[in-house]
Amino acid sequence: MSIKANNPSLKSWVEVPAGSDFPIQNIPFAVITTEGDTPRVATRIGDTVIDLKVLFDFGYFEGLQFALEDFDTDKLNNMMRSGKEGTRALRNRISDLFVDSNNELRKNDNHIHQALLDIDDVQPLMPIEIGDYTDFYSSEQHAYNVGCLFRDPDNALMPNWKHIPVGYHGRASSILESGVDFHRPKGQKKPPSEEVPVFGQCNLLDFELETAFFTYEGKPLGDNITTEEADDYIFGMALLNDWSARDIQGWEYVPLGPFLGKNFASHISCWIVTLDALEPFRVSGPVQDPKVLPYLEYEGDKHVDINLEVIIQPENGEENVVAKSNYRHMYWNMNQQLAHHTINGCNMRLGDCYGSGTISGPEEGEFGSMLEISWKGTKPFKMSDGSERKFINDNDTVIMRGFSEKNGIRIGFGEVKAKVLPTK
Length: 424
Ligand code: CA
Prior knowledge:
Number of domains: 2
Bound molecules: calcium ion
Strand content: 25-35%
Number of strands: 26
Radius of gyration: 22 Å
């Protein structure tokens, strides 16, 4: 089935403000609520939110394989059971309804009045019931920077790094949606000045600029997903801020890796952009040298050009852009990550979440964490109000934004945003 909804010549009868992340070619999915009403599945065009439960009720999705419980629900998981073909058909149908040459819905004031909402009247909720969360470590620049900072610039990358997409199993319970503030974590750490470990609040709180992808139902335990099949198992993507407590992490990570320094909060953006909508923005990846094992080889352009930025906004202060990067800088792509994750027979489930790993570009100004931006605190970032940041202060809000753009079409994610409250 072709992805008709991606046609760049389409225009909608719904107004799209200049520079919007959400033209008719995007059609992302979210779960929303409005005052006094139950959660339901929605999409958006510009700043207009479209209630898909209402459209289903009025029969606009007749002929598609969906039921009321796919839209009258507080998570996207039911709808995602329809798989790639199902969500592709749904996006195509929504696109049809809102294209300026189609009067089917446009002429029905009563239906429009019930189905269309202003973004300001809507609260987006956690979009997906996430079963398992895996975080990769797939940006070469980030792995190199961290290797320089903690080990040896001459041997910054571990010997395995260019042979396997390194990752670890994270924790899904503390993944939050954009807009949910959280408290600075506390824990055990061992500052260089101390002989023995101490307990206290995290003083080196950091963000990690990442993207996440979410899977449809995978294959049974024991089977694997190839790089060629991977696209059919990926529903869509979001922005991910994978918060990290560097002082807790630095003491605890040996020998089993990340634990309490990483699992206290991670935030995702609320509008899930489908992999289908991102197809026009595919680009080639880096030459992988040394050559990867056959199960990690892939064909075609499997990286994605997504402009990313990170902002720190102090309480009542201005936005400060502290990093600009791009998802195309990844060494390992999603197809390779999924192929590697399943090559041992590990089963992926519907709604599982996979973090890219911190996305650092090759230049200064493109680093995706404060650890790298401040080079472990030795190069503080100068804020517009005259203050400095080595890491994140209490009451700072960290915002990440991202979009792809080509031939005048901009497909964006909106933002993921959260404020750091003082330790509880
Ligand atoms: Ca991470």
